[in-house]
Write a structure and sequence with these properties.
Length: 57
């Protein structure tokens, strides 16, 4: 889902560095990455800057 569809479903699309292969083995034992999922890292300052645009759950 991208663009306008994300707002309708509540999903959030992010652009970041795909570190799935680098970090998979460092996840807690109870954390799993699905076959169709990627572990994406974004800078903390980017998340902070976006905070005003992210609604509270």
């Amino acid at each position: 889902m991208v663009g306008k569809d994300c707002g309708r479903t509540g999903d959030i699309a992010v652009i970041g560095r795909d570190l799935t292969n680098d970090l998979r083995e460092r996840l807690p034992d109870d954390a799993r990455i699905g076959e169709d999922e990627r572990l994406v890292v974004i800078p903390g300052n980017m998340l902070s800057a976006a905070k005003p645009d992210i609604r509270d759950a």
